[in-house]
């Protein structure tokens, strides 16, 4: 989780609580969920943050949360914005891989050294978290006085800059921390920051770039130009963000604007001109979500009055209105800088923190039960014990597998009705070609173990009780999941009878009736294959593995096997 440096003197100034001691701040911050990790050489608190509250990645955001906690601020606060004087024109040459842009003009900010350090830290922490190391969103902050805007038209007032694509060996500019004029390609090759983020744009035909009337001044998401560098003398800023997702960069922009507004700055809107139309940024829209009074009380375990809940929401930086009906439901307004409120549970968490989790009294639940192992877990343990008693070595394999191993090498076709032949529960973006789906049966995993252990002594009697899954559109998740029992016996004299005798003994241990009518399965030898029918229900298959499967896995001995649904033993 991110660690942020926060100066306690800055907290005193921004909260207005000059009398607070360091220890008092530490206690108050812990109540907000911020853990104290130590002190830097210059006396700053090192605070570890939960990944949800990205609005607290700066001292300004932490101070805002403390002011709400102290009761000095209440409800949703939205900065006032001035009408736009600047426009970002999105040119058709912008790379398709990074099409979105947003921004704001910030005027009258007082950037002393601590404020500038906080702004830089916020920028980098947002890059590392919400911006996914600049891949999803990147922030550029510029000294507005160093920009020369293009005139939009003879009829229109205001200034414009252009977000466009540039050839790798195209226009030159002087990057931050450099004195040389380089093309974008040279920046990626010779500048330390360019080398660090080169992979983000290296495959593009044209690189993202932002121009004013003078020329190229920003090369997102890599580096800004030196001409517009922000210093402690800067008072008016231009904030621009580019990325692959409009919602993400809009919320990153909101967090920055709120931090600068806390320093006394005025936010000025910016128009963004796409081919599809013009939009106004920053997006300070206040969203609403709903949560019931009963759900708040049930989860927190306390009884609250309706007015008390509304007060707790306001002390969390939100507004709430109660809607009366069969039950009390709160319509809660979410401030634009909160990117973490996704469900009613997030609202309950805010109420709980405002109430004070230390104020909650622990109590035993009003039920007459105690914790114990789940019935399925007990069944699984019992089956595993029986298998070990029958001479099998217990295994635990990966639940993920490739389609080649699950189907092709076992001779099974996808979508057939045989055991293991269901439609695959595929991984959308697999990390490796070896793990592209959840296995639909366990025997492929066991045969892979045999394949990897041909150098070991025989006999090899292996068993596993494991998770399987296949596509099923009738399920809410579109995936049907279950647990299977599977076993293999690899030895020079392994036969159908060996598999059946072990399976019969296992079923006898659980008091269930086993039948084995003849059947066919592509992984087994015809005439030496049977269905596993337990208490009248067909739940699996058993027999001798087909020579094709044996050869495919480089095995030199016959293999007898069985597999069935664990639930059949209940």
UniProtKB/TrEMBL annotation:
**SMART domains given for it?**
B3_4, B5
GO: which molecular function terms?
ATP binding; metal ion binding; phenylalanine-tRNA ligase activity
Q: Where in the cell is it found?
A: Cytoplasm
Q: What residue spans carry the region label Disordered? A: 1-22
Q: Which residues bind Mg(2+)?
A: 340, 346, 349-350
**Which keywords accompany this UniProt record?**
Aminoacyl-tRNA synthetase, ATP-binding, Cytoplasm, Ligase, Magnesium, Metal-binding, Nucleotide-binding, Protein biosynthesis
Span-the-membrane segments of this chain are none
A UniProt-annotated Pfam family: B5
The B5 domain covers: 284-362
Q: Which GO terms describe its biological process?
A: phenylalanyl-tRNA aminoacylation
Q: Which family would the database say this protein is a member of?
A: Belongs to the phenylalanyl-tRNA synthetase beta subunit family. Type 2 subfamily.
Query: Under what name is this protein listed?
Result: Phenylalanine--tRNA ligase beta subunit
Query: What is the protein's species of origin?
Result: Haloferax namakaokahaiae
Name the encoding gene, please: pheT
